[in-house]
């Protein structure tokens, strides 16, 4: 049995946000989207998730059109439905309504069964001084590791 294969990570998410909790969700894909994902042609940097009408949606993720596809290729920036249990969606909705909370995708991976999954993070935006403090801590840890 093979391990999960990380296809894309959102490196900006951990830089711009403080991650409080993570969730796992499946993706509803159409046509050639899974082929493009397996080829690594996905960008999560501008993406976020939102709960509307008691359903979770991934907005702003760019999956490039499949090169071997025909004129019936998928729309690259379309809104994609996230597959989660009702209790998870309710918890996410309740926590995301708090002031300053947002839902960001952290990574997209293929699980051992071959399904595309996205790891979502419930996050709070970092202020400029928080980012500077994180960079200073990271630099000091790096200096200690060198010695």
Tell me about this structure.
The protein has one domain: Small protein B (Small Protein B, Chain: A). Helix content is 29%, strand content 37%. The protein is globular and about 55 Å long. The protein has a seven-stranded antiparallel β-sheet. A two-stranded antiparallel sheet has the order 3-6. It is an alpha+beta fold. Strand 4 and strand 5 form a beta hairpin.
The SSE string, one letter per element, is: EHEHEEEEEHEEH
Mean pLDDT: 88
> Could you give the distance between the termini?
41 Å
CATH topology: Small Protein B, Chain: A
CATH architecture: Beta Barrel
Placed side by side, the strands forming the largest sheet appear as 1-8-9-2-7-5-4
Number of helices: 4
The tally of domains stands at 1
CATH class: Mainly Beta
Q: What's the layout of helices and strands?
A:
Elements: E1 5-9, H1 11-16, E2 17-27, H2 33-38, E3 42-43, E4 48-52, E5 55-59, E6 62-63, E7 80-83, H3 86-96, E8 101-110, E9 116-125, H4 128-146
Antiparallel strand pairs: 1-8, 2-7, 2-9, 3-6, 4-5, 5-7, 8-9
What are the defining features of this structure?
seven-stranded antiparallel sheet; two-stranded antiparallel ribbon; Small Protein B, Chain: A; globular; 29% helix
């Amino acid at each position: 049995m093979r391990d999960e294969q990380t296809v894309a990570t959102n490196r900006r998410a951990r830089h711009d946000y403080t991650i409080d909790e993570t969730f796992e969700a499946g993706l509803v894909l159409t046509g050639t989207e899974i082929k493009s994902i397996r080829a690594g042609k996905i960008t999560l940097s501008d993406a976020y998730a939102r709960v509307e009408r008691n359903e979770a949606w991934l907005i702003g993720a760019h999956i490039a059109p499949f090169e071997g596809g025909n004129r019936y290729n998928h729309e690259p920036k379309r809104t994609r439905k996230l597959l989660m249990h009702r209790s998870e969606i309710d918890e996410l909705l309740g926590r995301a309504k708090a002031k300053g909370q947002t839902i960001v995708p952290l990574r997209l991976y293929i699980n051992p069964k071959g399904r595309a999954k996205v790891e979502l993070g419930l996050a709070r935006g970092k202020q400029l001084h928080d980012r500077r403090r994180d960079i200073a801590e990271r630099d000091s840890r790096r200096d200690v590791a060198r010695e």
